[in-house]
Amino acid sequence: MNIHEIVERVAKDPYSENVNHGGLHPSSILNIINEVFWSPNNPCDKVTLEIAKEQDDHHISVRVIKKESLTKDVST
To answer: For residues 24 and 58, what is the distance between their CA atoms, to the nearest angstrom?
Structure first.
């Protein structure tokens, strides 16, 4: 996958697999979950997230490890 394809994929689905979002306030996790499950563009039924506390001891980073759908594959 070249950089152009990656940029297009992330523009289409900011919470696609292996995309990392950093510098977030912990309350942001609710918005991410809403977007992942109920996005009109690419909703899914199950998601595996990696959430880590950042070095500043105040913010978090979130990475979508895997997205699954009962009706279709959402990883592409």
So the answer is: 9
- What pTM was estimated for this model as a whole? 0.77
> What would the pLDDT profile of 7-60 be if each residue is shown by its tens digit?
888 888 888 888 899 999 999 999 999 999 998 877 899 999 999 999 999 999
Q: CA-to-CA distance for 48 and 8, rounded, in angstroms?
A: 22
Closest to 42 in 3D by CA, of 62, 18, 17: 17
Which element (helix H / strand E) includes 56?
A: none
Cα–Cα distance between 70 and 33 in angstroms, integer?
17
d(CA 67, CA 48): 7
Beta-ladder partners of 60: 24, 53
